[in-house]
Design a protein that fits this description.
The chain is of the alpha/beta class. The protein has helices at residues 15-31, 46-52, 58-66, 89-99, 123-126, 167-182, 198-213, 226-235, 247-260, 304-316, 321-336, 354-370, and strands spanning 3-11, 36-41, 69-74, 104-110, 130-136, 144-151, 157-162, 187-192, 220-225, 242-245, 268-275, 281-287, 339-340, 350-351. It is globular. Bound molecules: nicotinamide-adenine-dinucleotide.
Length: 371
């Protein structure tokens, strides 16, 4: 069995606490001979700044490039509010995304039946929800030039951001969406604003073209205006399978979708790069939540988003989709037994801490592996 290289970057705040629970699950994976793993650990965010004076060291970036999968906890916290802008904790995350060319951000919104009552929407709208937002992560208006604020002769100021996409950027993200849809529900909805934006028009044309020329016609493709899709996401979210959209709309729509599921502590994500000649992609897996300084060090953080990020790594980078399904099942069954961290707790449920929740999932996962 080939050894897979995993790099753990726990980061700051609750990052190390939730990463410890990932280590527990990885220990089960190794002990049961599911995978042969070489696990390394590095620093990112404030932790890296304290040790090296930068938000991620060159050495750890190189390790991340060489890894089969990188798992990151979270970065940031008030301790580093005053550090120079280029060394702020988030800069470590941005550098990793940029240097690893992680252009595709996958954010699933899954509503576990046991948590359907925690959603802002009615149970029947979200129970069993399982959609995936594929957001373009390295282009669009967050990166386009010019990007500036200039002084006008009349004493006012003028701010410009530039929304820009080239064909190849749209093609590669559309391909990721079509390939994902094939192993999910077979449907892609592409969202843009072709009615008012040239970049939206090109987005629509390129997605349509690659659907035909790329041999993806077995996948059903629909187009929606991004604002209409926003409405539909809160009206009938279960209508969607895979949604593909640009950086800006994806940022907003994925946050909306995340609230359908109840809690930030439940949401994993994956960021993927292009496939190399061996079919291998650079990849980074992390929970959607931040470093939660308000609860850091108290042992009460919900580790499920971090563990579900490992499940995504097993599915998309480590070649073990069946094991990933068992890990997701272990999470679902643990919730089904009434275990809850404080963020998802409700009357009648058993309140547990980070370690108890992680141990319960690891134990259930181990039992499922044996079944
Ligand atoms: P946050 O996600 O850290 O916390 C928001 C709220 O959700 C807090 O009340 C927190 O206690 C709670 N929460 C988050 N994750 C939880 C978990 N796993 N279990 C239980 N409760 C949880 O967002 P924030 O408070 O806006 O930001 C805090 C710091 O994190 C800031 O420095 C911010 O820049 C950083 N941040 C980092 C990332 C990242 O690393 N990807 C993402 C968002 C924010």
């Amino acid at each position: 069995m080939a050894t897979q290289n995993i790099l753990l970057l726990p980061g700051d705040g609750i990052g190390p606490e939730v990463m410890a629970e990932v280590r527990r699950v990885l220990a089960v994976i190794e002990a049961r001979g599911v995978l042969s793993l070489s696990i390394d650990e590095g620093l990112v965010g404030g932790a890296a700044y304290d040790a090296h004076g930068v938000a991620v060291s060159d050495g750890d970036v190189e390790k991340a490039k060489a890894a089969d999968a990188v798992l990151l906890g979270a970065v940031g916290g008030p301790k580093w509010d005053g550090v120079p802008y280029e060394h702020r904790p988030e800069a470590g995350l941005l550098r990793l995304r940029k240097d690893l060319e992680l252009f595709a951000n996958l954010r699933p919104a899954i509503c576990y039946p046991a948590l359907a009552d925690s959603s802002a929407l009615k149970r029947e709208l979200v129970d069993g929800l399982d959609l995936m937002i594929v957001r373009e992560l390295t282009g669009g208006v967050y990166f386009g030039e010019p990007k500036e604020i200039t002084d006008l002769p009349n004493g006012q100021k003028r701010a410009v951001d530039t929304q820009v996409y080239e064909t190849y950027e749209i093609e590669r993200i559309a391909k990721v969406a079509f390939e994902l849809a094939r192993v999910r529900g077979g449907r892609v909805t592409s969202a843009e604003k072709r009615n008012v934006m040239k970049s939206g028009l090109l987005w629509n044309q390129v997605v349509t073209a690659i659907h035909k020329s790329g041999g993806y016609e077995d996948v059903k493709l629909d187009h929606m205006l991004a604002d209409a899709l926003g409405m539909q996401l809160v009206r009938a979210p279960k209508e969607f399978d895979v949604i593909v959209t640009d950086n800006l709309f994806g940022d907003i729509l994925s946050d909306v979708a995340s609230m359908l599921t109840g809690s930030l502590g439940m949401l994993p994500s994956a960021s993927l790069g292009a496939e190399d000649e061996n079919g291998r992609r650079k990849s980074l897996y992390e929970p959607v939540h931040g470093s939660a300084p308000d609860i850091a060090g108290k042992g009460i953080a919900n580790p499920l988003a971090m563990i579900a990020s490992l499940a995504m790594a097993l599915k998309y980078s480590l070649g073990k989709p069946d094991v990933a399904d068992l890990l997701d099942k272990a999470i679902s069954e643990t919730l089904g037994e009434g275990l809850r961290t404080g963020d998802i707790w409700s009357e009648g449920m058993t309140k547990v801490g980070t370690t108890e929740m992680g141990s319960a999932v690891a134990k259930k996962f181990e039992a499922l592996l044996g079944a």
